[in-house]
Inverse folding.
């Protein structure tokens, strides 16, 4: 399919003027010289798809942050490394005011070519659609915030302990494997007991039940038994429950200047630093209390993240094991219900939506 014979509308999962998620039809993205037109084949789902609507009052917004799709003919190809027919995946800007054409849970998107990468043959298309957000978020934590070596630069075991609260989240599963590839040999995680054996296969060395009230004290004792070594604490959940995962993680670790704390939540508690899945563009959010989150682009940090993502692509299914994926195929209306469930009830593994949507009879 080329841009000239593509449909004139794109069906989308959309937050309307009131911020309510609905299914709507939007005009096809206008062709631009600085962007590439993509037919979305699969769109990844993340808890943040709904959370940004609640916490950051996002309106008139197509939902979704990651995708796998086919490049179509468009003027922007002339200044890109891609050609029509290429299968690409990517991660788009998540700011409050992003244009409708960037949201990935719709049939066609138009994005800057720097936000996409060609999908290697060894990674299934549904799987790659669910990797950019979680892997890049973990990459920012491990290689930018914790400043650990990239997997391709690792030179053997690293002294220190990684503690990941919520190791069975997709970000947590990514972080376990990336930390191991970086050289970390002591990786402590919390998760439901039924996930412990799986997480050990990914590289976790010690697993604790997140719901056990004794877990923080037991983790702290284990960490302290290692002596005066670096400790990297990562909240891979980022919920605003009471007590929060940040509070539980901090209470699991000794007070020391050798302890570094990072959270996926953009509203970090004292002592924590936030991480984010994209550092190659400006990210801005309006907070409910009237404050504003502004994360400027950092191309050096972004470069490390893209290199780490490239390592994941090259080693997918081997040194980086597959994160469980559930592929949904159905109507846009039913897809919207599934997206909401991810935020409200959670799930193990990644939900990926198949596009185009199934049409109603």
């Amino acid at each position: 399919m080329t841009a000239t014979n593509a449909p004139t509308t794109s069906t989308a999962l959309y937050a309307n003027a009131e911020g309510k998620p609905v299914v709507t039809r939007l005009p096809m993205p206008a062709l631009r010289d600085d962007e590439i037109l993509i037919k979305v084949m699969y769109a990844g789902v993340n808890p943040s798809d709904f959370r940004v609507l609640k916490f950051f009052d996002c309106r008139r917004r197509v939902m979704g942050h990651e995708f796998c799709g086919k490049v179509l003919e468009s003027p922007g190809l002339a200044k890109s490394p891609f050609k029509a027919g290429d299968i690409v995946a990517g991660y788009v800007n998540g700011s409050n005011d992003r244009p409708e054409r960037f949201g990935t849970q719709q049939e066609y998107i138009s994005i800057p070519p720097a936000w996409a990468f060609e999908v290697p043959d060894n990674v299934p298309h549904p799987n790659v659609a669910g990797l950019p957000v979680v892997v890049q978020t973990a990459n920012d934590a491990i290689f930018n915030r914790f400043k650990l070596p990239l997997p391709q630069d690792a030179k053997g075991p690293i002294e220190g302990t990684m503690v990941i609260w919520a190791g069975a989240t997709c970000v947590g599963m990514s972080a376990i494997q990336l930390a191991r590839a970086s050289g970390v040999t002591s990786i402590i995680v919390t998760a439901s007991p039924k996930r412990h054996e799986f997480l050990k296969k990914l590289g976790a060395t010690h697993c604790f039940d997140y719901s056990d009230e004794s877990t923080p004290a037991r983790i702290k004792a284990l960490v302290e038994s290692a002596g005066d070594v670096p400790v990297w604490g990562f909240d891979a959940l980022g919920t605003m429950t009471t007590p929060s995962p940040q509070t539980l993680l901090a209470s699991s670790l000794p007070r020391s200047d050798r302890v570094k704390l990072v959270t996926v939540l953009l509203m970090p508690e004292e002592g924590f630093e936030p991480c984010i899945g994209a550092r190659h563009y400006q990210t801005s959010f309006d907070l409910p209390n009237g404050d504003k989150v502004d994360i400027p682009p950092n191309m050096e940090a972004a470069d490390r993240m893209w290199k780490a993502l490239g390592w994941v692509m090259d080693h997918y299914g081997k040194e980086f094991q597959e994160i469980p994926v559930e592929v949904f195929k159905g109507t846009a209306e039913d897809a919207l219900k599934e997206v909401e469930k991810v935020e409200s009830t959670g799930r193990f593994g990644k939900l990926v939506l198949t596009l185009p949507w199934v049409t109603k009879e």
Observations:
- The two ends are 25 Å apart (CA to CA).
